[in-house]
UniProtKB/TrEMBL annotation:
GO terms for molecular function: NAD binding; NADP binding; oxidoreductase activity. The keyword Transferase does not apply. Coiled coil: none annotated. Keywords: NAD, Oxidoreductase. The active site is at 174. Transmembrane segments: none annotated. Residues 5-164 form the 6-phosphogluconate dehydrogenase NADP-binding domain. This is Uncharacterized oxidoreductase. GO terms for biological process: organic acid catabolic process. It comes from Priestia megaterium (strain ATCC 12872 / QMB1551) (Bacillus megaterium). It comes from the Bacteria. InterPro entries: 3-OH-isobutyrate_DH-rel_CS (IPR002204), 6-PGluconate_DH-like_C_sf (IPR008927), 6PGD_dom2 (IPR013328), 6PGDH_NADP-bd (IPR006115), HIBADH-like_NADP-bd (IPR029154), HIBADH-related (IPR015815), HIBADH-related_NP60_sf (IPR051265), NAD(P)-bd_dom_sf (IPR036291). Residues 171-287 form the 3-hydroxyisobutyrate dehydrogenase-like NAD-binding domain.
Length: 295
């Protein structure tokens, strides 16, 4: 196994377990996080904390960013003390974030203009999958660059897909998958509300569903919905709205309508208005239940 030195930026619910698995695999980490105290457990395992994204990039010349939205990633990358400023020619920036197609294209061009590489490596899986190094990693970017960082993908993921040379293709694939997830959450929520109105227990209904679909996604999310187990959130409802909006914007860019996406968007917006934005995005059920009451 090739041991690598890597800068890592972002220690949220997904970033921290990914960092731990990189260290476990023997890689050397240089970390920047806005709240430095979150890195304490990693420092005890040999990681180094620096004061700016540029420093992380300069020391490793290879940086993973695991951030929550376009605004955070653009700031960390393009600011005066950002990743772009710290990387040398030939340096590699790997973005794990779920971001817009437009930003992915913008960062690809910005890095290319400086003789650097931008690779998108979006992931499928919740924090428990990240902790178990069982994520599905969707990689797109320059072949030489992505092959160079492949050992790091192996450290965090169980299955790795390559979807092309253009980084934005990873973002498109992730948005398409997340659209299918929210569509499933909407459908399961509506079905559960209906069968419960007839006196059937959600768990009994979902046992039948799981015998048909045999999908861990239906099983895991169905269990959260049936038990109303929305805290702590593995992925917040407010972030679900962010991803639905990104999918809708990506679809509009190529004139591909997402009418179901518009429906779910409205339900997520209502959920946030009702104060449920901090709950797991499977709490979409609460909005569907509220619709029943309104009718």
């Amino acid at each position: 196994m090739v041991k690598m030195k890597v800068g890592l930026i972002g220690l949220g619910n997904m970033g921290l377990p990914m960092a731990e698995n990189m260290i476990k695999a023997g890689h050397e980490l240089v970390i920047y996080n806005r709240t430095a105290s979150k890195a304490e457990s990693l420092v005890k395992k040999g990681a180094k904390v620096v004061e700016t994204p540029a420093q992380a990039a300069q020391e490793a010349n290879l940086v993973f960013t695991i951030l929550s939205n376009d605004e955070a990633l653009e700031e960390v990358t393009l600011s005066e003390a950002g990743v772009l400023a710290g990387l040398q020619e030939g340096g590699i920036h790997v973005s794990v974030s779920t971001i817009s197609v437009d930003l992915s294209e913008k960062l690809t061009s910005a890095h290319a203009a400086s003789g650097q590489h931008f690779v998108a490596a979006t992931v499928l899986g919740r924090p428990d999958a990240a902790a178990a190094a069982a994520l599905k990693v969707i990689v797109a970017g320059n072949k030489e660059a992505r092959e160079q960082v492949w050992p790091l993908f192996e450290a965090i993921g169980q299955t790795i897909f390559t979807v092309g040379e253009e980084p934005y293709l990873s973002n498109v694939a992730k948005l398409g998958n997340n659209f299918l997830l929210v569509s499933m959450l909407e459908a399961v929520s509506e079905a559960v509300v209906m069968v419960e109105q007839y006196g059937m227990q959600a768990e009994e209904f979902l046992e039948v569903v799981n015998s048909l679909f045999a999908s861990p996604v239906y099983k895991n999310y169905g269990n959260l919905i049936a038990k109303r187990d929305f805290e702590p959130a593995g992925f917040k409802l407010e972030l679900g709205l962010k991803d639905v909006n990104l999918a809708i914007d990506a679809a509009k860019k190529v004139s591909a309508p997402l009418p179901l996406g518009e429906l779910v968007k409205g339900h997520y917006e209502q959920g946030i208005e009702n104060g449920w934005g901090h709950l797991d995005w499977s709490a979409l059920l609460k909005t569907v239940e509220a619709l029943k009451k309104d009718n």
